[in-house]
Write the structure tokens for this entry.
Amino acid sequence: MRARDLFAVSAVVAAVAGGGGCTRVIDAVTPKDCARDPAADDCGPTSWPTADHGANSDPWLVSHRSVITEMRPRVLVLNFQNGRTADDVRATAERQVAAVAEGSRYHAYTDPAAPPFIRYEITKVVNLTDTMAPSGWPNPSSTQLPTAPTGEFDVLALFSSTFAALYGFPDPNTPTRALSLCELFERGIINEVWIQDGEAGVRRAPLSLERKQSYDETETAVPGSFAPNAGGRDPLDDIICGVTVRFAHLDAARGPGCDLEVRGWEIEAMWLALPSLRADALAFLNRDFDTRFSAPFRDWGMICDQAAGIPCVNYPTPTRAQGVLANGTAWSIDPFLQGCGSTEFPPNARWRGDITMNNTTVQSRCEHFGLRDAPDRGDTYELYSAAKVAALEAMFPDCGGGWQIYWRQSIPGFGNHASNADGTPMKNWWPLLFY
């Protein structure tokens, strides 16, 4: 971190040798903002990571979000699946790299020239398989896969000195010691970990985990405060890394759409740590029905836990939604002028996961979110059905991959001309993943 990047910085860096112990705590940070002062030193267009800034939660990401033109986050891939070589797993990871890159092309469905914004780079594939599994070994994953006494995947073990030696990143200052996983994150050597294990039960690594640095209403990091549930499902507690830590699963047996959905959970949940940006995000995700429509629920997820195929909502017209709550109370929203949707609920969802083969037509502002391009200066609405994403579905199959790509390409990204609800210019959302 260089003084020219911040008006005021007070940082404490403490390193504890061994295990996973290493902390990097920012006490107080008042970053400059390149959006407000584009002529400031070091505010020219840039990719990330840079030579000096590569770690998650670096205050530089906040101050330079408006001038980042491309992100190339570094990912460490762990292969626990017996029978799969490092090259096999690298191919699966590269497939996912391509899918994420395609999803980061803002409005590419109408702008073929839109560039990818996120292009993951695979730092290393660590092969943790068995050369020969023990006789009678029943699991697709290796004996090296860490498990808790319950038999569940033990993510905390990945932060141990035992696994540090397996990752094989020597400490430049003490070459006989291997850097821990926390240190790899804190030094910006990696920004994310992907795990392939071939499992489907309790031994399977969590599909999505994130412990995210928390920020206040001024978009300033809150020292020592993290949101452990920012992966959207299970919490990531009991680690002391000083920056955001991110995990995702790789599944070679499923199509790229499934791993896209998993990575979408982090997009949906990261606003827990970003209160200043939450209002617009909830509008896009359709998680503000209680305040926007005075509905007796916040979002579809609160009322749509029925089995697939049993509607929790139906649409008599493209601008009306209605249904019956579990207690028998009927509800109706008319006009139903929604945002866009979420990984499990596209604009026309009738139940959780109702993504493909749904020809119900509804109005949505996915393609116009924040653009204020309607005659009344609101967002323009367009009809949506599964037919709109059929071509993308063929390219990125499984788990509604077509919707996952379309949804991601609708997220306010690089080069957007959208506005926040308060009328201020809307910045690119993608750098927020690595705050």
User: Anything to note?
Assistant: The longest strand covers residues 6-15. The chain has nine helices and 17 strands.
